[in-house]
Design a protein that fits this description.
By secondary structure, the protein is an alpha+beta fold. The protein is built from 23 helices and 41 strands. The strands form eleven sheets. A ten-stranded antiparallel sheet has the order 1-9-10-11-12-20-16-15-14-18. Helix 9 (409-416) packs across helix 23 (774-782), helix 13 runs parallel beside helix 15 (562-582) and helix 14 (518-535) packs across helix 15. The chain is globular, with a radius of gyration of 28 Å. Keywords: Hydrolase. Residues 74-390 form the Glycosyl-hydrolase family 116 N-terminal domain. Residues 498-775 form the Glycosyl-hydrolase family 116 catalytic region domain. One of its GO terms (molecular function) is hydrolase activity.
Length: 895
Amino acid sequence: MKRRSFLKQGSLVVGGVIGGTSFLKGFATPFVADYPLHNIPVNKGLDAKWIKSLYETGRASTYCKTKNELKYIGMPAGGLHSGTLYMGGDGRLWLWGIYNDDREGVDPREVYWNDGTKERKIRPRDGANYVEPTLASNKRILEQGIAVKITYGGVTVIKQLNEDDWDDVIFEATYPLATVKYVDKKLPVEVVLKGGAFFVPLNTDYSELPATFQDIEVKNISSSNVEIVIAGWLENGANKITAKPGDGRRKNEVKLQARYSSILSSFIASKEDANTQRDAGTMCFSVMNQKSVVNTSADPFPVKDAFFSESKQDASEKDIDEKLVASISVPGTIAPGKTFSASFVIAWHFNHSLKKLNGRMPESKDGYYYATRFKDAGEVMNYVARNFKTIHDNTLLWQKTFYDSSLPKWFLERTFLNIGTIATANTYRFASGRFWGWEGVNACEGTCTHVWQYGHTLGRMFPSLERDTRERVDLGVAMQQDGGIIFRGEFEERPAIDGQAGTILRIYREHQMSADNSFLNNNWNKIKKAVTFMLQQDKNGDGLTDTPMENTLDAVWEGEIAWIAGLCIAAAKAAQLMAEEMGDTSFAETCKDYVSKGGKNMSELFNGEYFIHRPDAKEGRKKLGSYNTCHIDQVYGQSWAFQVGLGRLWDKEKTLSALRSLWKYNFAPDVGPYIKTHTGGRPYALPGEAGLIMNTNPHNEPKAYGEDVTWQLGYFHECMSGFEHQVAAHMMAEGMTDEALVLTKSIHDRYHAAKRNPYNEIECSDHYARAMASYGTFITACGFEYHGPKGYMRFAPAFNAANFKAPFTAAQGWGTYEQSIGGGIQKHSFNVKYGELVLQTISIQKKDASPVAKVSVFLGSQKIPARFKQNGKDVTIELSNKITIQPNQTLAIVV
């Protein structure tokens, strides 16, 4: 298939699993005797040259006005858990989901979709925003923008930074920031905007600010001086949604400081209840480090010369039926070849809880964590200004560090951008400091364990949030007396077996992402209790969980289910390693025995091609299950194992066969024929798009999914990106790099900006948490392992190993790893950009298994004593003592 043909047919859609409620009841297809035949082609018809191109480093994804690719773009542009603010394709901000709206999705509406057999109503949690993506032009709740006034050769030109005013606008998608270039070849200047969220991995204080920034740079490309004014404006958004005539007046007031100029926007209430509305609060609009012209009441449309003039008063007020818009202008002169810049910052403060949480979530009533740090948006802005250089520059440094890699740029984007979920209204941090999340925006509450355990990004970017959630929630309010972890905290009363196992694995990851053993030491008794509960669900003692319990497909399945059993084996292995570190030899042996038996007996769940669901001896196939079908998660436990360095858990060849079967039977270069015949699923992939189907019946067995088929069957026919990402991560780890890249690129293409918002992978509602599994594919592409308390780090790149470069995050710092191979020498280096990195043991992989003659280690120019051991291609280097690498220091290893 030609590349263009594949992109047309194979650009993918994402879908997701949900939890807890009968979301599909009423439109899933009931089982009938003539169940549709499997119709996914074995030969995928993919062009070899196209597959080869997926390995190329390339350039950042760019979306252009001239290709009609800007209208859906909505990059999360605010701080973690501070609402949903989007930066659009032309740089303007939109959606403004900062007002504590408890409606489902970023755009709570229903649409209609014809599934090939009939027209169905699709809700936000069913994929409405996938079928008909939200348009930025329909969600510009506040007036906001930036304009440039350019004077040259006696001519003055005013242009707004929106797509209507330019020949072309080019958006470069590199989350957490995007770069927007504005093209008009008649002008003597080049104009670029770079904006997004303050985002510094490991530092939540810097990354949780309810604020966004936009840097504007204008370069003079002529041979004469150019006079320039850069102006930004923002509407007073206080009580924007709920205010009614008589409730009060909006007020803008100047707040001039040494470091910045700003305008604070507030609401003067004439009725007390106006102060308690969900949108009651303040906003602040500022420019950093500039001599500026401030206007508290500007008329931005159309932008004229008067707009750039100074206000005659320090404050302005207007009734609610009038828009009150503030502007700040920055004038300057640009010499030929030079640039002029300005940095605008917008902050907000709306400290009200969601009404839908108040009844069952007492902590939510006290508001949000950012309000414990700042009393209003003015204080937020003062903090930003005091620390602007540090926060701003480290945000830029992270962006540069992450994308300065030999890995393909499109791959870096897709595997990382789902961390933006944390910077939407999908998550909260309550005043108590507790992190909390939905599954998708305002849908399916309780930081659901069987969904959130798929995500790998948060634990690597902000491990302190994950550690606190494990302690405060999973091992705290959610833990039962018997060690079971309630899978939705206050919103449920029972554990989910996959959530239980996944949480144990996350506990091990959180330990690894710690600087020392304190997290493990402080929680070991509760961890052991949670593990014991999981082990007890194996009633017949064969190492294969067989207790009917809730799972992420919203059902209680009977029998021994490969993906659940395997996940529990992985969790038991993690528990064994933690017990060994704790010196709890008896419990370590218990876990080791479970892992041994389970790993051996997994072969009993292998049907010759893939791993299956063995029915309960008594109940048989009465209930819905995956049975002898090809299920997407069948070797999920081994996938998790590669994320935390657990090694091989069961037979390698059978595992590879299972992954090949998923490719053979479940990957469709065009899902159209499949979803047309296998109806009842939600539209997370549409005809013409590629995807990995959740569960297929490749041998057309009768009653393949059981005798009593229920509404959950619809899930089997969907493409849910979180599951697809975990399979891609596993394929990458097992050497199936072609398949891993094709699958990831399929998801990336499904979310191409010409079709829908690239930053919003949808399952049950928008910005679905499970999609953060994408970072797992980045981890396995690097062959990365890390154990902070031990000072251990490993890299074994899955491809392009001869010249490899990639970012890493550790417990206390982040930076860049590089390796080169050639001429009988391998060079490896760790360069710290932020914080510090403590290392003692480093594992790398040679090109071949030939004997290593010598290993030399240097910290800067200082030679570090070290010894090494070799096992085939693997070389482990042990430093005589732990060393600490500081920013801009490099640890270099020559093999």
